[in-house]
Prior knowledge:
alpha/beta
Amino acid sequence: MTTEHSPDDAAPAVDPLAESPPPACVMCFNANDASGAGGVGGDVATMAAMGAHALPVVATLLVRDTAEIFDQHTIDGDAIVEQARHLLEDASVSGFKVGFLGSAENISAVAEILSDYAELPLVSYLPNLSWMDDEDQRQSYFDAFRELILPATEVLVGSHQTLTDFLLPEWDNERPASARELAVAAAEHGTRFVLVTGILLPAAKGQPQFIDNVLASAQGALTGEKFELFEVSFVGAGDTLSASMAALLAVGSEVQAATGEALQFLDQSLDAGFRPGMGHVVPDRFFWALPPEGEEGEEPGAAGSDDFNNPDQPIPPGGSRRVH
Length: 324
């Protein structure tokens, strides 16, 4: 026996030409890092891997290789504003990321743009600037960043040492500043959260060394991930973490959930890191596209090696090192 179906019972037709929603756009103000480890290149790769679209606005040109920074050539502030304004009039932006801007003058130019979009989330990354030989230039950069960028920042990302030097320059306690103490100092300038990386934890004799990465507000620590410390130096980790945070917040993720996902992404990017030159290891933001271990095409000897300090030895992809 056959059953008749009315036309109303038919499945709705699918339009093959219908467009899927576009990815969230995140404007990134950052340096151009020719090594591809960090800067706008790192932002573009990270956000692409996270499913967002980066709008990179170059603020300064770093002269560097994978081992060290030698110099920089800053972009004129008016050129930064011109880059950003044309894009902002054209594209729908869902969030911002600020990295290294080169000078106090460029910070002022970027802050003026951000003030017109205070409703959008901003993730700011403060890198280690010890390579800047001019102490007055470095201090003026810190002062401008503190006064103009922190009030607009939802999440400030940086290493424990860098954030301590920046937020608590008079800290002289033998005990390291806690993530909450850093968050209290940041909150005095208007920043809601700090994501503090590289907090060294006490190590028992004969046991592995671990570092903590903690999201905190002025009320206390909120969440974090603990990683086993590897005896290898990375470059681009901070830009990777902050760019992934910016991408996640731009699509509406809650800050604690975004922190966990961003830290997991960073961890796996570092596990799969590689050396493009003779310097530090660069995160592989597309670790998830690597073939599974043992498949055809895998480099001989890549899997299972612990020799992270030998530039001639490939850095193998591996599982997460997170322990909580």
